[in-house]
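# step 3/5: fold
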Amino acid sequence: LSGLDPAQPYFQGTPTEVRLDKSDADFVDIIHTDSAPTIPNLGFGIRPAIGHIDFYPNGGEEMPGCAKNPVSQIVDLDGIWEGTRDFVACNHLRSYKYYSDSIIYPDGFLGYPCASYDLFQSGNCFPCPEEGCPNMGHYADKFKDKIKKNFLKFYLNTGEARDFPLWRYKVTVTLSGKSKVKGYVNVALYGTGGNTKQYQITKGTLKPDNTYTAYIDANVNVGEVTKVKFLWNNNWINPTLPKLGAATITVEVGQNR
């Protein structure tokens, strides 16, 4: 049984006979997309973990792309009716959009086991454990024999619009050069499965021999990494023409470590 943002009003906090619960099937997976409190946030979805595995994409409360201005949302690519529904219940309806995208992307929507979304965002729950990570949505049941304890919570990020899946990488850059400068460092990944856009690894004071780490959620599964593109910029003309390089760049893939 897959619960697509099961309802919060009249169901949250009720006995298991009343609401969806993991006792309802051999395997129950839940996608939480609108679990902010109903009052005052108008969250329609249930907050607690109630399945064998519970996914909280983007933290489970506010979905990216749902804060668009009302006009652009109602005049939606999928038509006025779809756009109006999205305006009224965008976060709630993301659950079925993620699910439908998950059918097309069997390797997408990896959920990382974590105690909270903040810990996930800061990289504490990266990479996947040895038994791997489940895929949120249609292929979640591939994970059912790997469940070792009650109420597993999984976190991940998604895109703002279709196609929704993102793939998480840890990128670590050690700089080389003669003097520190102000600016930013960008990295793009190239691989057998495709290439990513540039992602900012750090900005501010850039010091040679220092190491900078960032977690990027790429909109493509690059497969085996074949090349990494490193760019830095100091945003203004500097008469001393400073030079910076990358002594080393390490890329860690969340899925297979």
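# step 4/5: annotate
Residues 73 and 79 are 10 Å apart (CA to CA).
# step 5/5: archive (pending)
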